[in-house]
Amino acid sequence: xxxxxxxxxIILQRLSELVLAKRNEKRLLNLGxxxxxxxxxxxxxxxxxxxxxxxxxxxxxxxxxxxxxxxxILPIIxxxxxIRYWAVFSLGPYWNTKIIIVPDLEVVAKxxxxxxxxxxxxxxxxxxxFLPILFQAYATAVTFTLLNAVILSIRIPAEERAxxxxxxxxxxxxxxxxxxxxxxxxx
Length: 187
Known about the structure:
Blueprint: H1 2-30, E1 34-36, H2 41-61, H3 70-91, E2 99-101, H4 119-134, H5 138-166, H6 170-174
Antiparallel strand pairs: 1-2
Helix pairs in contact: 2-5, 3-4, 4-5
C-alpha cells in the first residue's frame, strides 16, 4: 500500500514534468532555441523508464518492504523534492528535460543555480539512490546509480558546452561554481 502510493506519486510527478517540458520545448523552439545532445537523450529516457520498472519489479517480485530506516531516508527524499521544484521554478519557462538553448540569452542564475551549476542533476542522483533504498530495493539503487553516473558524464559536458557556446554569460556566471556542491559568493 505504501509502495503503491510512492510509486503513483513518482509516476504522476514524472508525467507532469514531461507535460511541462513539452510546453516549454515548444516555447523555446519558437524563440529560436536549438536542441543539443539529441543523440544521448533517448538513453536518458530509457534509463528513467527502466529505473521505474526495475524499482517496481524488485519490490514486488522480492517482496521488499519499507526500510526500518525510513525516518532517515524519507526526509532526504522530501528535501530533494524541495530542491527539485526550487530548480524548476527558478528556470521557469527555460526548464526542460532536453538541452534547448536560445542563443545569446543570459543564463538563469537564481534559486539553487545561484550556488551550483546542476542542482537538478544532483536531485535526480539522490532520488535514484534513495527512492529504492526506502523500500530496500538495493539492486535497483546500485545499478541505476551507476548507470545514471555514466549518462551524466555525457549529459553534463554536452549541456555545459552548449551553454558556453550559445549564451551570453555562462562562463562568467558559472565558472566559479561547482557542479553539485553549493558555494556562496564568487571566488
